[in-house]
Task: structure prediction
Amino acid sequence: MINPNYRLLVISTSTIHGSGYLEYIREEILDFLQTNELLFVPFARPSGITHDEYTQSVKNALNPFGINVTGLHSYENKKEAILNAKAIFIGGGNTFLLLKTLYELGLIDTIKEVVANEIPYMGSSAGSNLTGLTIGTTNDMPIVYPPSFDALQFLPFNLNPHYLDPDPNSTHKGETRETRINEFHKFNTQTVIGLREGSWLRVENSVIELKGNLTARIFKPNQIPVEIVAGILNEEIYK
Amino acid sequence: MINPNYRLLVISTSTIHGSGYLEYIREEILDFLQTNELLFVPFARPSGITHDEYTQSVKNALNPFGINVTGLHSYENKKEAILNAKAIFIGGGNTFLLLKTLYELGLIDTIKEVVANEIPYMGSSAGSNLTGLTIGTTNDMPIVYPPSFDALQFLPFNLNPHYLDPDPNSTHKGETRETRINEFHKFNTQTVIGLREGSWLRVENSVIELKGNLTARIFKPNQIPVEIVAGILNEEIYK
Result:
């Protein structure tokens, strides 16, 4: 059973086509946080932008709605900053860089500790990968070498954010997303949830709810993938 | 300078659209090998197929043209098999799995040794990634955790096989290939050569030649990428 203290918002993408950063999911975020203080973790550095730049984009998106955002990089004592956080948001970017940075700073166990103490955790993309067992189903390029692929392990499965269906017209011979996840299942047993852009999971009271307008794709070893519609996930789906 | 003993065929993809396995590049392979004995390394296991299945597909492609193919997995003493090889082909699949397997079997240094002794090395896709400095620019999913991202390092740069141009009509928010390589260059200094499907590098006498009908894309830190046409690569291009 998922720890009943966990409060998680596991977002496939921060931005959908034709909409600003976090705009499409803003109402859900405001409803989820239940605090106006947000500690942002900018370590995934999308496109290599700086921690300050990345934090500023979150401030721009959420300050107008009464949320005070601070960047974890700006604290000298980062463990203390996490222990004092009212809510945590780990943004997207490169999952390898994100996980390596958290391990190097010794913050993995600290984040686990506060989330087990009911601090809301919001992740998008790379930050959502981290809520699963490992980063073994990230789409990112391995630009740096983390000391482990083990993630925060709040959820008993793996995530594939930005899940993308195969393009029936493609002549490209690189692997499709589904082929990659099938390869993953030759060497790993956990369920993988492919979350399309515009979908997210909300986890509270040991219940996982798929939200957004799209279905999600569920992969298990040696089984044909299935599509699930938005709503509460039966434990059989992800076990 | 590239070791003058190296003889390398660095292929972006084994298969192009509308053509059989290795078919489009068969003449080049036969010309390159200069032997009829080929040791095939099936460890990258595309789509998770078995070593036997994978080796059979190489036999099917090359036996009719007089090449005897044996799979490295079938030798009890794999180091000895490599030391006795007349030519080596490392096929595509999952780069993480391939590199992890070679490290675990202790074969990295053995392969380096024979290639430094003029044994021809042919790689496609994941097998081509391995000719560069690291696997940090693979497109693959990190389905297993290798003990290092360091590759065979025959070439003083990194490869990105199956290089794919951004789709101007895409509404998907996942990173483009170019964005990913730019992220790589925030943390790594080596040149990255994006090899499109249907392109390959042939390396002999310290000379690198880009072959096939397409241009290749050259990425360096803090520089606008450039396209190079087929032909001999000036050292300035990849240094």
Notes: Chain B touches chain A through 45 residues (CB under 8 Å).
